[in-house]
Amino acid sequence: MSLIQQLINGLAQGSVYALIAVGYTMVYGIIRLINFAHADIYMMGAFIGYFAVTVFHVPFLPALLLAMIGCAILGMTIEKIAYKPLRKSPRIVLLITAMAMSLILEHGMATVVVGPNPRPFPELFKINIIHLGPVQINNVQIINLSVAIILVLILQYIVYKTKTGKAMRATSYDMEAAQLMGININNIVSITFAIGSSLAGAAGVLVGMMYPRIDPYMGMMPGLKAFIAAVLGGIGVLPGAMFGGILIGLCETFTKAYLSTKLSDAIVFSLLIIILIFKPAGLLGKPTREKV
Amino acid sequence: MKQHFRKTLIGFGIAVIGYILLSVLINSKMLNDFYIRILMMIGINIILATALNLVIGFTGQLVLGFAGFMSVGAYMSAVLTMKLHMPFIPALVLGGAMASVFGLLVGVPTLRLKGDYLAITTLGFGEIIRVLIVNIDYLGGPRGLPAIPKYTTYTWVYIICVLSVLVIYYIIHSSHGRAMISVREDEIASESMGINTTYAKISAFIVAAFFAGIAGGLYGHFLMFIDPKSFDWLKSFEIVTFVVAGGMGSLTGSILSAGALTLLPEILRLFGFSKYRMLMYAILLLILMLFRPQGLMGSKELSLKVFKNLGFKKAGGEK
User: Fold this and answer.
1) pTM score of the predicted model
2) Which residues 203-262 on chain B approach chain A with CB closer than 8 angstroms?
3) Domain A3-278's class?
4) Is A144 on the interface with B (CB under 8 A)?
């Protein structure tokens, strides 16, 4: 396969990682928490999409919207139940509750709701392969890429052009000062979780269309990689997360194509460690000075 | 030092009495194989929890890839006993040594990082070790290593468990331990007091990796089968959970929570929640963290003083 072909596959994969990574980075930016349950919100998004299509027979766009709304509500609920009471505790405690929340979602789905077996995601579009010279693109890849780009543009607009976005940026810069300026911190944290989770939900539906098998444990590996993408780009920095997601997607497809399928995970992790050692705040992150 | 010596003697006394009690129970068939297995698992988890507590609780460095070191020790000692026919204990010690070499290799570049970044890099290293083992055919690759001789007995688990807790107790109460605690409290301040913080962090890391390797060796020779999957990041997280739930910086807390959290799924299984036990486990963990974020013991230690105080109060009451 040609180089350009791999580039396109990597972009399609990377755009999904980018959508998940944005959620990690937004939550981290605002309450300094590595939200391990985020990967499972992405899984829930895939399942909400699945049920919307199989039970209610809705087409693609309403299914995507339903998944996004469902995940936004789920994300806000998780924040209210599990993270808000612990906002003043040491961060490792939050990390443990996030992990417990992730286990609850996974095992709750696997034992109570849908069962552990993988299910086929319904075909929303007939797959058409478009030939552009030596390069093949299928229409699902095009849809995924364009949905991801549209969502990221909407996110950019919300964060950089609206009042809420300004409040979010202020809160992530300095929570206490933002509170003193009359920003309702609790609302802003809720909104952040809602936006991040809805993007993960959208990613769930998109991945369901690309790799049509979904199961309650599907979030683990993409979640970890999206998280690495967020760190790689500089955690807490929005463009960094998108850039990191694309980079990880490309890196993964290229190592799979040209180096080794089995070692691709190890190579992705090594890339992270090498970058962190030389640029500890991530690629686009600003280094912080120590104050005494 | 004298005070520690007395405490050690008391601890040793309790340990010997505990061992005699345990062997009486086992020899009189009061405890069947199922319970012995759980007790051995608890012992192994106590070693892991106290070792990680040295890094997380006392030195204040958040390390997430701890199961990686466990897998190094498990594979090293299993290869030594299976393929080179070495006796058990030297193989265990060499497994621990190999794990601490890995600890040094991982620690030197990563311990410069702080907080969450350190957590992520160590998590990454744990995964790299796992993926590498999957790709080494000599170690069985993804299929794992079967038919490891069953050398781990409850006596060995007990002795090694007591020894490792003792060693960590002595480290914490030595000048090295005070250096580690000062790094946790304030790295910059302790550096300006002339403490070599890098040395303190890396030495804590190496000691912890050593005990993780030993625990891994015990684990392998106990289950008679190891595969890379049993040392993934969920296992690492389980160990972190023991430390945080018991209270960071409390050795007795780690011991209690490693015991309780290992027992919990088995108890749930006994009560017929077999299918839902991971779900229940996660829910109970969430509740524990929400209502007691500092962990079971906080940073306090359970000691005989509690009983002494009770005794005095009673004596006072009788007056």
Assistant:
1) 0.84
2) 233, 237, 240-241, 244-245, 248
3) mainly alpha
4) no
